[in-house]
Write a structure and sequence with these properties.
- The structure holds two protein chains of two kinds.
- Chain A is α+β, with helices and mostly antiparallel strands.
- Helix content of chain A is about 35%, strand content about 25%.
- Chain A folds into three domains: about 45 residues, Uridine Diphospho-n-acetylenolpyruvylglucosamine Reductase, domain 2 (2-Layer Sandwich); about 110 residues, 2-Layer Sandwich (Uridine Diphospho-n-acetylenolpyruvylglucosamine Reductase, domain 3); about 90 residues, 2-Layer Sandwich (Enolase-like, domain 1), CATH 3.30.390.50.
- Chain B is α+β, with helices and mostly antiparallel strands.
- Chain B folds into two domains: about 80 residues, Roll (Ubiquitin-like (UB roll)), CATH 3.10.20.30; about 70 residues, DNA polymerase, domain 1 (Orthogonal Bundle).
- Helices cover about 35% and strands about 15% of the residues of chain B.
- Classes of the chains: A alpha+beta, B alpha+beta.
- Chains A and B meet through helix 2 and helix 6 of A and strand 4, helix 4 and helix 5 of B.
């Protein structure tokens, strides 16, 4: 299994990268960590005319926290995000979720921006981005734009990124006082694809829930906030939310059925809320 | 690959402590260049899509899948393979422990296991068995199962702490 031929560009500047992406249009694929693109190339499931390697562009991996916004450069490696004290402080959900992302050698190389750009419905990072209300900041030769996570994930491997655009960074509102972050998932073995995963942000009020944000991975084909389940959780509690989850249009498959994914999503919600099953 | 019209690029890197220059096909994976270009066959080619961990090498101090990086991306980096790690002695305790515990049969997965275990012990000198299993979750062994491997990593960790 070897890749088909491609042209290769390794721009040293952001401007250079955007110029190549503009010129190549849909023929170009961005090579960041390569932990999903390279398997697809090796398997010849992807045959881009041009690889634009962004690993030499300075500054694309910066992680900063200012003005209540955590900003993570698109090329920040999973291992760097996982180890970042700023991430631990401002978005603990990301650190929890990254422990489920593949294996150490993959996390040493794979990037946050790459995971979002791929939009694998089983992946953890898109679910976190949706749950936390992230903003994806895109650049292109013609300028830039900001896309809210709720408008970014369109389906299986489908995002709002247009040809010629590159993710620059992801901006996440820092966790506010009184909120709790939780990420849990079920997979066959550690690091395998999630059969179901739950990203949950909560603000409790006494014994009840004042506000909730829920996103799932490995369940629906397009990652999104589960607004109906959130409202049910606040208004009616865990079982009301589980009832809503029962109505989801989950992905099927021979290995994991839609009904099983929904079952696991409910189990994860009950566990996250502190009940046994 | 010996195709005459194959697009190539020139790279320069530090490979196991030595400055190396090479001309590599653009589409050649790092591990294929190490084996067929540089003649270092200790890194193994297993699944070629990032699942098995047999191709692990260290690039700029971090363990990576050799099948999920292009050789051209090694330009300007510091690469260490199992040959380099063996020569420097930095994984000696792990190698001794694997040998003594018979934590290998065919040995195909062993170089990748050793490099990943070494990275774990650098960061976590006293790992639990669960931490060892998690660190090696991306390294497949099809012979022994994993108990002896986990034993060996624990033993090596203890000897390094002593």
């Amino acid at each position: 299994m070897k890749p088909a031929r491609f042209d290769y560009a390794r721009p040293e500047t952001l401007e250079g990268a955007l110029a190549v992406l503009a010129e190549q249009g849909p023929e170009a694929s961005v090579l960041a960590g390569g932990q999903s693109l390279m398997p697809m190339l090796n398997l010849r499931m992807a045959r881009p005319g041009m690889l634009v390697d962004i690993n030499r562009i300075p500054g694309l991996d910066a992680i900063t926290l200012a003005g209540g916004v955590l900003s993570i450069g698109a090329r920040a490696r999973h291992a760097e995000v996982l180890a970042s004290p700023l991430v631990q402080q401002a978005a603990p959900m990301l650190a929890q979720a990254l422990q489920h992302v593949a294996h150490p050698a993959i996390r040493n190389r794979g990037t946050l921006g790459g995971s979002l750009a791929l939009a694998d419905p089983a992946a953890e990072m898109p679910a976190c981005a949706a749950c936390l209300g992230a903003t994806i900041v895109l650049a292109s030769a013609g300028g830039g734009r900001r896309v809210a996570a709720k408008d970014f994930f369109l389906g299986v491997y489908a995002t709002a990124i247009e040809p010629g655009e590159l993710i620059l960074r992801v901006e996440i509102p820092a966790i506010a006082t009184g909120w709790t972050h939780l990420f849990q998932e079920v997979s066959r073995r550690h690091g395998d694809y999630a059969m179901a995963g739950l990203a949950l942000a909560l603000r409790r009020k006494g014994a009840g829930i004042a506000e909730a944000r829920i996103a799932l991975c490995g369940v629906e084909s397009a990652t999104r906030r589960q607004a109906e389940a959130e409202a049910a959780l606040v208004a009616g509690g865990i079982e009301a939310a589980c009832q809503v989850l029962g109505g989801l249009d989950a992905m099927g498959g021979e290995e994991v059925t839609a009904a099983h994914r929904i079952h696991l999503a409910r189990v994860l919600l009950r566990r996250a809320m502190g009940t046994r099953n | 690959m010996e195709l005459t019209d194959e697009p190539t690029a020139d790279i320069a890197c530090t490979l196991n402590g030595e400055a190396v220059r090479a001309r590599v096909p653009l589409r050649q994976n790092l591990v294929d260049w190490l084996r067929y270009g540089a003649g270092l066959t200790g890194s193994h080619v297993g699944c070629e899509h990032g699942v098995c961990g047999a191709c692990h090498v260290q690039v700029d101090g971090a363990v990576v899948r050799g099948c999920l990086m292009l050789a051209v991306q090694a330009d300007g980096t510091v690469v260490e393979t199992i040959e380099g790690a063996t020569g420097s002695g930095r994984i000696r305790a792990l190698q001794d422990a694997f040998f003594n515990r018979a934590a290998l049969q065919c040995g195909f997965c062993t170089p990748g296991m050793l490099l990943q275990a070494a990275e774990l012990l650098e960061r976590t000198p006293d790992p639990s068995r669960a931490e060892i299993r998690e660190a090696l979750s991306g390294n497949y062994c099809r012979c022994t199962g994993y108990h002896a491997i986990v034993d060996a990593v624990q033993t090596a960790a203890a000897s390094l702490r002593a």
